[in-house]
């Protein structure tokens, strides 16, 4: 059965692949992204898939624009009269030793990754609550379960996201709303490369950060493609009652279960060993 699906951050990467795959299956896609050019090109692709019948609703919009999100919601509900699933896919990375980071820039990461998801969910919750059905799905990361050094701000954003989702689930369970969190470990995109930056030469963290980056770059070569990740995401979206926690690939599954079943000292040992930054 086809759905009306809201997706944020769908102009490129996994979000774009997910939107195209879902449209090809006959679903209606409503979404936004700050990348106006990406939105325009995606519009053409989705219209081509759907026979040019204006089935989809895509706009250029920043996730931090609260009034814009509410306007988008009103447009979507007027067009479709119902929303089945909201997929919060907007997110940015943040990298560096905590001691040396700019907290104003860190605030932007938290604003987009956490408050952004809250804003799009809050906009559509009243509609889903009244219908007593709907799915709220958030893209997270394995660092929302297993913390990684030099990614403390990004880790904080994903821990915050997953903690909030679990609390919100308690609030909305009586209204038939389902939740899912999807957590990749690594996907072969430029996501990490865009934020990896060595500290200054006199930084006490420089040597370990370099080892971390080198190891991460090595591991990304064997990471699954965005297309592979998108197929997993689509499967979660299509489920009537998805699991709360969903992993993308083998690595994220291993870390998820190690975190649940192993003592913390072993998890910490494993993370530091894998990233080649033990003392």
From TrEMBL:
GO molecular function: oxidoreductase activity
Family matches, as Gene3D superfamilies: NAD(P)-binding Rossmann-like Domain
Cross-referenced SUPFAM superfamilies: NAD(P)-binding Rossmann-fold domains
Keywords: Oxidoreductase
The keyword Oxidoreductase is annotated on this UniProt entry: yes
Domain of life: Bacteria
Coiled-coil portions: none
GO annotation, cellular component aspect: membrane
Stored PANTHER family: DEHYDROGENASE/REDUCTASE SDR FAMILY MEMBER 7B (PTHR44196), DEHYDROGENASE_REDUCTASE SDR FAMILY MEMBER 7B (PTHR44196:SF1)
Family from the record: Belongs to the short-chain dehydrogenases/reductases (SDR) family.
Name of protein: SDR family NAD(P)-dependent oxidoreductase
């Amino acid at each position: 059965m086809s759905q009306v699906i809201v997706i944020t951050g769908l102009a490129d990467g996994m979000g774009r692949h997910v939107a195209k795959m879902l449209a090809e299956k006959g679903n209606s896609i409503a979404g936004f992204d700050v990348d106006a050019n990406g939105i325009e090109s995606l519009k053409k692709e989705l219209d081509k898939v759907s026979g040019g019948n204006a089935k989809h609703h895509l706009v250029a919009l920043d996730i931090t624009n609260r009034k814009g999100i509410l306007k988008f919601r009103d447009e979507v509900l007027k067009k479709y009269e119902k929303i089945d699933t909201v997929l919060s896919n907007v997110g940015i990375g943040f990298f560096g030793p905590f001691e040396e980071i700019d907290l104003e820039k860190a605030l932007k990461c938290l604003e987009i990754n956490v408050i952004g998801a809250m804003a799009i969910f809050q906009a559509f919750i009243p509609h889903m609550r009244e219908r007593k059905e709907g799915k709220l799905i958030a893209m997270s990361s394995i660092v929302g379960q297993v913390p990684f050094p030099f990614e403390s701000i990004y880790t904080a954003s994903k821990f915050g996201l997953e903690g909030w989702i679990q609390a919100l689930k308690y609030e909305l369970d009586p209204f038939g709303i389902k939740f899912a969190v999807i957590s990749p470990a690594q996907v072969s995109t430029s996501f990490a490369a865009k934020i990896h930056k060595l500290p200054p030469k006199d930084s006490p963290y420089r040597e370990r950060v370099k080892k971390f980056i080198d190891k991460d770059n090595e591991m990304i070569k064997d990471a699954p493609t965005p297309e592979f990740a998108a197929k997993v995401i689509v499967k979660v979206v299509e489920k009537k009652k998805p699991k709360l926690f969903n992993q993308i690939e083998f690595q994220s599954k291993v870390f998820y279960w190690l975190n649940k079943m192993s003592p913390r000292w072993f998890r910490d040992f494993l993370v530091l060993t894998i990233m080649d930054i033990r003392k």
